[in-house]
Each structure stands twice: as C-alpha cells, then as structure tokens.
Amino acid sequence: MTLPMSKPIITLSGITKTFPGVRALHKVALELYPGEVTALIGENGAGKSTLVKTMTGIYQPDEGEIAVNGEAVSLPSPHAAFQRGITAIHQETVLFDEMSVAENIFLGHAPKTRFKTVDWRAMRDKARELLGEIGAGHIAPDERLKDLSIANKHLVAVARALSVDADIVIMDEPTAALSFKEIQDLFDLIDLLKKNGKAILFISHKFDEIYRIADRYTVFRDGEMVGKGLISDTSQDEIVRLMVGRSVDQVFPKTQVAIGEEILKVSGYCHPTEFADIDFSLHKGEILGFYGLVGAGRSEVMQALFGITRPSKGAVRISGEVAIIRGPADAIEKGIVYVPEERGKQGVVTDLPIVQNISLPSLDRTSNRRGFLRLVEEFALAREYATRLDLRAASLSQHAGTLSGGNQQKVVIAKWLATQPRVIILDEPTKGIDIGSKAAVHAFMSELAAQGLAVIMISSELPEIMGMSDRIVVMREGRIATVLDNNDDLKAEVLVRAAAGITEKAA
After folding, report:
1. For residues 204 and 175, is the Cβ–Cβ distance under 8 A?
2. How far apart are CA 270 and CA 312, in angstroms?
C-alpha cells in the first residue's frame, strides 16, 4: 500500500542532543505529513521524549535543522513552537487545574475587547464551539479543569490545539490512563483531526493501537533513527526487531516452578465503598494474576492489603498466623510490599537520586547502630538491584525524575525487592513501558517466583495476565467473579466475559 504523495508539514534532520554523560539523540530524522498519523516507536530511553521536547521548544538541539512547511525555523521556547502550530498532548496532560476549561483552551491567546481586556463572553462562546466540533459538547466552558476526568482533560487539550489551528499535534502515550471506551473516543477524534489535515505524531507502546491508528512509523533505538516506513507494509515482528536490535521471541518468559506452601490467605475482606467478600490464597513460588475492567476494585483490595486504606472487616493470614496490618509499615514488617500503578506519584521520589530511592525502605540495613548511613553499603545495595533489573541510567546519582517511565518502574521494583519481602504486589507493572523493558520485567518476575517469592500481579493486558499467571482472579464491581487455573485450554474470551458479567450463551 502507498499513501498519497504530499510534502511533510515538519521535517527534522540531523538532530543531535547530548546531556552530561548521555547522548540522547544522534543525527535523527523525522517527517510528519498532513492528514496522517506517524507512530514514533522505541524502547524507554530510546530518545522519544527528548525529541518531543526538542519539537516543542523545551530543548534546543546541539546540531541539526527543523523545517516547517519547507522553512528552517528556530524554536527557542514552547511559546515559539506553539506559534508555529506545534502542540503536544501528554500522558499526563499539562494544563492548569485551578483554571476553567475556557481559560485553559485560550491561555496566552484569549480574545480581547476593543479596550484590550479579555472578552470573557467571546472566549466562552468560542470554547463551546471548539468543544462541540470535537464531540465534547458535554464539557462546560466554565467548569474547573480539576473537576474533569483524565479523558475529558485530553479533550480540552485537543480543543486548545484547535484554538490556534495547530497543524502538528503530538500525542505522547495519550491512552495510558483511559478506559476502553475512552480510547475508542480518542481514536474517533484522531480520525477527525486527520480529515482536517493535521499531522499527528503518536507515541505508544501498544502495538494494537499503533496498527489501528497509524499510517507511518519511525523507530528510534539508543538515540538513533533505525527505521521508518508504512505500517501496512511492515509486520509487528519486524518493528520489534528494529526497536530492540534483536528478536524478542518470548515477551512472557514464564518458567514452570513447583508451587510451594500457602504464604498468604485473605478471608472475607470488605470495604464500605470499594470491595466486598474478597477471598483468595497465594502460595510460595506462585504468580497470581488479578484481571478486571476499570473500576473492578483490584487496586483497592491491594492498597488495603498493604495498609494504605483500612478494610471494614476480614482477616489476613501469613503462613497461617493472623496478621494485623494498620499501615504500610506493618505490611512491610510482615513481608508484604506494593509496587503502585502511579509510580510518578506513589512510587519514586523524583527529586532524590536513584541510590537513595532504592535504599529508602532499607535504611536499617545500610546504617550503623548510631543511625549514620554507610554510603558504601547503600551504593552496593542499590547497585545490586539496579544491575539485576537492567536499570539504564548514567549513574546511581542521577535523579529519578530524569529517568524514562520504564526505568522509573524498575527503580520502584528494586526499592521493594531490596527489603527482601515474602509477597510482592505488582500493580500494572509494565504500564507505559516498551516491549523490551516488558520482557525484562517479566523475566525478573519469573526469576522471583523461581526463588520462592509469592507474586500478585494486577494487569489490564490479557496477554500479560495469560502469559505470566499460574492462576487468575477475575474481579467485577468490587467482587471476585471467578478464580481460574491458567492452562493451555483457557481462552481470553472466558476472562473478558467474567470481567464484563456476560453469561455464556446457550447452545
């Protein structure tokens, strides 16, 4: 298949960007075409985020040229990029929660009265018109942004892009926090933007999304552009090989291990508003998968088990003994740790270096009897787990906030593994990370189970649940719908039906 020939709206050529100790981009190239979606694909740390920041004026390239409509341009600031018709919609939309929808849409270019003051009525009317054009007429222009769902915040960001008639729209992991229906709505919106001639850069780790929405692809690896072409002419296997420089034959490297004794028993666990009648067991060496649709209550159960929230009734037994868990400190002491889904807010301390993030829960092991840190032991502990997880960073002194999402996830997992737990709860452990990093996390999970650690894995991805779990707990509306043994006969449709409450049709 060939796409209609047209000139690119924006062309990047020979773009190089270096930081102390890190070459983020080296002579990369990218072209975006009107009315087309180009997927930018690569592992975490491949340079995708650096390129986006270069395109939006946050970073200045050391070498290379950016041309818009054939004219070489300089983008010294985000405002300059915005004026050139370049806008970005991020995984966590960067807008202002305390301002209204209309104010966010027209921030920096609000309509003015003849007295040069903000024309509030015109701004609200134009905001309402723009929201209507993208099927978001249900959002009131006067509504505070903080009161909107993540999906509706994305719609406001799109309306902002249209308010300046942006020709280039960058979407960086836009579906990461959206439900299935919200993702379909976003795809409909992208189709509308394509019809309006917008050039879209779509960054995602989900191949089903890329093959659903993209026309072209560009692959980055280790800061270099290693391939590009038409999606319709290229297999997923070929793109994976370009991404990682090798064939990832086994993304789910689950090894069969002997399941040992019961480690954890949860009985009659209830919460007034989140979940009810939760009963399950977990054994040494087992990976127990928790599957369900958004809002099923899986994370809420695990947060209660870790002591973040308090259940109204129920019991927890560890190796047969009743465990009283009043808070996370009690859970950690009992050998239960929790790797949260929201790693940026709950998992890492972004202003601290990697070494301190990893050692934080294990200070008793890296301090002397007077409470003074032994830096050599602290670095040794951090280095051990960073190496085991193949953490990619310039040094252990690098701040966690400067890492890619996948490497931040590895820091969180390393932090808790360093406490030598008996039970580790992984909540969406590979959310927002690339296929190579997923394979590394899955391999490490399998290694942990083989060493006798008991693993609970919450995942919304069916291939991950079915590829890594020994047993699968399916939750629906705060209750356990079914518990299934994972074997070759288990079909994905069975899990989806149980999660959605769809009964099997009679033959």
Report:
1. yes
2. 6
Both 154 and 109 in one domain: the answer is yes
Distance CA 191, CA 431 (A): 25
Q: How far apart are CA 196 and CA 165, in angstroms?
A: 10
End position of a domain, from candidates 402, 420, 438 = 420
Amino acid at 155: L
| 165-178 pLDDT, tens digit each | 789 999 988 776 66
> For tokens 């508003």, what's the residue?
273
pLDDT in tens, 86-134: 988 775 556 788 999 999 999 878 899 988 899 999 999 999 998 888 7
* Same-domain status, 387 and 445: no
pTM of the model: 0.58
Asked if residue 89 lies in contact with residue 174, where contact means CB atoms within 8 angstroms, the answer is yes
Q: Which long-range contacts (CB under 8 A, 24 or more apart) does 17-22 make?
A: 17/47, 17/50, 17/54, 17/59, 17/61, 17/62, 18/62, 19/394, 20/394, 21/394, 21/395, 22/394
Measured CA to CA, the distance from residue 44 to residue 404 in angstroms comes to 6
